[in-house]
C-alpha cells in the first residue's frame, strides 16, 4: 500500500508559493497552505487540502499549521518556504528596524517553520525542504539589499542543515528565481535576461516539484537558479 505524501507550503496564497501548491497537488501531494491573506485557505479548499490563515512570522501560527497537518494527514513529507517582500532603500539609509524586518521576511521565514517541521521529518526518516530564495544571492543586486544580505544567510543555513540531517534522509535545497511574472514587468530588466523574457511562476513551481520528488533524492544543500541565464557564475 503506497503512502500518501503531504506537502506544507508556507506563504502559499499567491505568486510562486501558490503555483508550488498547485503543482504539488497535481503531482499527487496532499497540501497544507499557510497565508496571511486568507487566499491560502481558499486555494487549499480548491485543492482538497488544508488551509490556515496566519503569519510566517508567528511561531504559534506555524505550530498550528503543523499540528493541524499532522492531525489530518499524519505526516509531512515536503516543506516549501516562500515569503513576501522586505524593505528597500539605499544601503546606508536602512534603519535598524528595517534590517530586523528584512531578517524576519527573508531569513526567519525559513528558520521558524524548519525548526517546527524538521523533527517530524527526522522521525519519519525522510523529507524535503525547499526554500524560495533569489538568483542574486551570490551576486547582490543593490535594488534589494535586505533580500541579498539575509538570503545569503539562508544559503549558509541550508548548508549547515544539510550537513546535519542528510544522514536522516532529510534534504534542503534553495530555488533561486530571477525576474518572474509574479513581479511587474520592466522592459529594461527583461532585456538583460539572456532568454529575453520573464520566467513564470509555473516554471519555478516545476523546479520545486522536482526537488520534492524521489528523482531528486540525492540532491541536498544546493542552490538551483531559475533565472533565464541572468547569473552564470559557478
UniProtKB/TrEMBL annotation:
Belongs to the short-chain dehydrogenases/reductases (SDR) family. InterPro entries: NAD(P)-bd_dom_sf, SDR, SDR_fam. It comes from Rhizobium loti (Mesorhizobium loti). PANTHER family: 3-OXOACYL-(ACYL-CARRIER-PROTEIN) REDUCTASE, NADPH-DEPENDENT REDUCTASE BACG. It comes from the Bacteria. Pfam families: adh_short_C2 (PF13561). This is 3-oxoacyl-ACP reductase.
Amino acid at each position: 500500500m503506497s503512502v500518501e505524501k503531504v506537502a506544507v507550503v508556507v506563504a502559499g496564497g499567491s505568486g510562486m508559493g501558490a503555483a508550488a501548491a498547485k503543482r504539488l497537488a497535481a503531482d499527487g501531494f496532499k497540501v497544507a497552505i499557510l497565508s496571511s491573506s486568507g487566499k491560502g485557505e481558499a486555494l487549499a479548499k480548491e485543492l482538497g487540502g488544508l488551509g490556515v490563515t496566519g503569519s510566517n512570522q508567528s511561531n504559534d501560527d506555524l505550530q498550528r499549521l503543523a499540528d493541524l497537518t499532522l492531525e489530518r494527514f499524519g505526516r509531512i513529507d515536503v516543506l516549501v518556504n516562500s515569503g513576501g517582500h522586505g524593505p528597500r532603500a539605499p544601503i546606508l539609509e536602512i534603519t535598524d528596524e528595517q534590517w530586523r524586518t528584512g531578517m524576519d521576511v527573508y531569513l526567519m521565514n525559513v528558520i521558524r517553520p524548519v525548526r517546527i517541521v524538521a523533527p517530524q521529518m527526522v522521525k519519519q526518516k525522510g523529507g524535503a525542504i525547499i526554500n524560495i530564495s533569489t538568483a542574486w544571492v551570490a551576486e547582490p543586486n543593490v535594488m534589494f539589499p535586505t533580500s541579498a544580505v539575509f538570503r545569503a544567510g539562508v544559503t549558509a543555513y541550508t548548508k549547515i542543515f544539510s550537513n546535519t540531517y542528510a544522514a536522516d534522509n532529510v534534504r534542503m535545497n534553495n530555488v533561486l528565481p530571477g525576474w518572474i511574472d509574479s513581479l511587474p514587468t520592466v522592459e529594461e530588466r527583461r532585456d538583460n535576461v539572456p532568454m529575453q523574457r520573464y520566467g513564470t511562476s509555473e516554471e519555478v513551481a516545476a523546479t520545486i516539484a522536482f526537488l520534492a520528488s524521489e528523482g531528486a533524492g540525492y540532491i541536498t544543500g544546493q542552490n538551483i537558479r531559475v533565472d533565464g541565464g541572468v547569473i552564470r557564475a559557478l
